[in-house]
Specification:
The chain is of the alpha+beta class and about 90 residues long. The chain folds into 2 domains: about 40 residues; about 50 residues, HU Protein, Chain A (Irregular). It has 3 helices and 5 strands, in the order ααβββββα. The strands form 2 sheets. The chain has a 3-stranded antiparallel sheet. A two-stranded antiparallel ribbon has the order 3-4. Strand 1 and strand 2 form a beta hairpin. It starts with a helix and ends with a helix.
Length: about 90
């Protein structure tokens, strides 16, 4: 499902225009970005938890050349699905 199909489905279920649905999704993503920048996690009931975690620096080896490289630390977005969602997908 692409973005346009998602917005069409959402607008139909919420009985709103596609433009309104697009604005609501943009607002939701904006709020979530702000929370992640502040170091908070986002927990959506029945869906799961989205949070930013820090990956420590590490040494990586290029398998073809054997050259060792230092990979700097970085922040990554992680997702942990809820147990309810896991059960529905089984």
């Amino acid at each position: 499902m692409n973005n346009k199909q998602f917005l069409t489905e959402l607008s139909g279920r919420c009985q709103m225009s596609a433009d309104s649905a697009a604005r609501q999704v943009e607002n939701l993503i904006g709020v979530m970005e702000k929370l992640w920048q502040d170091g908070d996690s986002v927990s959506l009931s029945g869906f799961g938890v989205l949070e930013v975690k820090k990956k420590n620096e590490r040494v990586s080896v290029n398998p073809s050349t054997g050259v060792r490289m230092l990979v700097p630390p970085k922040l990554v977005l992680t997702y942990k699905p809820s147990s309810l969602l896991k059960e529905k997908l089984k």
